[in-house]
Amino acid sequence: MKAAAAAAPRWPVTIGQAAGLAGVSARMVRHYEGLGLLGGVARTGSGYRQYTEAEVHQLRFIRRARDLGFSMEEIAQLLGLWQDKARASSQVKKIAQQHIASLAERIAALQAMQRSLQALVGCCHGDERPDCPILDDLAGPAARKYS
């Protein structure tokens, strides 16, 4: 029986426990705290951080937003909206739509890079000869003057 593993944590928890429960590293917890994404985390008399269940929930929120590629600035906005029960969902939707547009631009740029590399690979013989169109392209037209 997994009694110890399945047991509910006793709140508050240490930074290591909070990180484990949220699926992030302790280093990232400190980073998020430094960015102001987590409010004033309580500390023991000896200075150890003590995280509540609500703060671990916030860490999970941040991790999920990072998994979806939101920037730290966007995550800060989303956290604020999540905590504001009087928010308008249109504000959240606007942030998500802007993020989708940004992702689409990045995907298009990556696809263009992929097409360029595929064309270069198609031109390369990949044999024992030293000629390599891939390296020639990376060096650019100015480098051809110096070779």
Report on this model:
The protein has about 150 residues and is mainly alpha-helical. It has 7 helices and 2 strands, in the order αααββαααα. The longest helix has about 35 residues. It is elongated.
- What fraction strand? under 5%
The counted number of beta strands is: 2
Radius of gyration: 24 Å
Strand order of the largest sheet: 1-2
Quickly give the structural class.
mainly alpha
Task: Please give the count of helices.
Answer: 7
Termini gap = 70 Å
Please summarize the sheet with the most strands: 2 strands, antiparallel
What does the overall shape look like?
elongated
N-to-C SSE string, H for helix and E for strand: HHHEEHHHH
Low-confidence stretches: none
Q: Could you name the key traits of this structure?
A:
147 residues; mainly alpha; two-stranded antiparallel ribbon; 3% strand; elongated
